[in-house]
Specification:
By secondary structure, this protein is of the alpha+beta class.
Length: 394
């Protein structure tokens, strides 16, 4: 009988889980597609490259959506059972809330394992592949890395600031360029107009500036020169660009667990990046653990709420998920700055989920109402009574 009951509850959960996960992936991909499509339309990237970009984003999106999908699936299933009085009928037959949890635990473990595997292997691969593809596009289309009114470095040691940029004509206006490639001299170029000329045969990118000034300053600051020009060509070799792409350092999000641990062990105590490395390492386990806890929380929460309709369950789930996501993002930023140790801070949102999970299971299994504010008031009153006070005589 229990096996039949567990199959019944499991069949209530998994269709909603898959549908919610696919809908979340589609919505997030649709929002990302706007920026990716802009590269195809105005920057010259190919449609096939756009498809690869979206594919590389999928692992990270799945990990992001798994906590919400697990919570929504379990909560909506138990909400339906509660609204149709099936949970009351089960309790009348002597079946407790804890006896309904095995299918919930199974779904939560599946979500936990999926998030853990993706976080450890697929997410670093996707992020690394995405960044490599962007660099390859920038190599073939040099103007892709140049943005209007933003300081950017499309080439190593060459910083750009462009007031206006036309991607089709590769024409720049009112630009400021700092060239630090010379080990002895720093060249600062200010020009009214500039154009990007790609010469594939010579493997050279030529930046042609018009009507400007070059400020040449030695690295030792012992000498400086000023040159006014009508036309000036700045050449950048494509071979140097490709070598820089092959030797570029990995971003933190591209590293696997072994690489993160190696970097942490080799970093000194004064290294500013060590907190970011630790946050990324602990995040690979903290997020999958949140997926598991979200699934467990959904059961008592859905069994307690007395409303009909899936929309109410989705709304409640999104509120819980947003509260967790905002707190997790805030804790990550605090840990990155060093004000809170990553070993402690990154687990605080999961700790609150665990406490909420225990609280909800105990209250709902005993058929007691859920009121956090009232319970906090009771605890405060008990502590106030136990605290010693002074008697005042009139």
């Amino acid at each position: 009988m229990r096996l039949t009951l567990h199959k019944y509850i499991f069949n209530e959960i998994w269709p909603t889980f898959l549908v919610t996960l696919f809908v979340a992936i589609f919505i997030i991909l649709a929002t990302r597609m706007l920026s990716v499509t802009e590269m195809v339309v105005s920057r010259g990237a190919q449609v096939g490259q756009m498809g690869r970009m979206l594919l590389y984003l999928v692992p990270d999106i799945i990990v992001f959506a798994l906590p919400a999908a697990t919570l929504i699936a379990v909560l909506v299933a138990f909400l339906r059972l509660s609204a149709d009085s099936e949970i009351i009928a089960m309790k009348a037959c002597g079946i407790s809330l804890y006896q309904l949890l095995p299918p919930v635990v199974l779904i939560s473990i599946v979500g936990f394992l999926a998030a853990l595997i993706l976080s450890i292997s697929s997410v670093p691969w996707g992020d690394r592949s995405f960044r490599n593809l962007l660099f390859q596009i920038a190599k073939s289309r040099a103007d892709l890395g140049i943005k209007e009114r933003v300081f950017c470095e499309p080439f190593d040691n060459v910083v750009f600031y462009v007031n206006h940029f036309s991607g089709r004509e590769r024409l720049m206006k009112d630009l400021f360029v700092v060239d630090r490639r010379d080990p002895e001299t720093t060249n600062t170029i200010i020009a009214k107009e500039g154009k990007i000329l790609v010469q594939p045969g010579k493997k050279v990118i030529t930046l042609r500036f018009k009507n400007g000034t070059i400020f040449m300053v030695e690295k030792t600051l012992e000498a400086a020169r000023t040159i006014h020009f009508d036309t000036y060509d700045l050449n950048i070799g494509l071979n140097d660009i490709m070598a820089a792409l092959q030797s570029r350092k990995k971003h933190v999000s591209e590293m696997r667990v072994g690489e993160l641990m190696k970097r942490i062990s080799s970093s000194g105590k004064g290294d500013k990046k060590i907190n970011a490395l630790k946050v990324k390492l602990y995040e690979k386990l903290a997020v999958p653990l949140a997926v598991f806890l979200m699934g467990i929380i959904g059961a008592p929460l859905g069994a307690h709420v007395r409303v009909r309709g899936r929309s109410a369950g989705v709304g409640i789930s999104l509120v819980v998920f947003l509260a967790y996501y905002i707190s997790f993002a805030g804790v990550k930023n605090i840990c990155d700055t060093g004000y809170l140790a990553p070993e402690i801070g990154i687990w605080l949102p999961d700790l609150f989920l665990l406490m909420a999970c225990i609280y909800l299971l105990r209250r709902v299994s005993r058929e007691q109402s859920i009121n956090f504010l009232r319970d906090l008031g009771i605890v405060h009153g008990l502590l106030k009574r136990k605290s010693p006070g002074r008697e005042v005589k009139s």
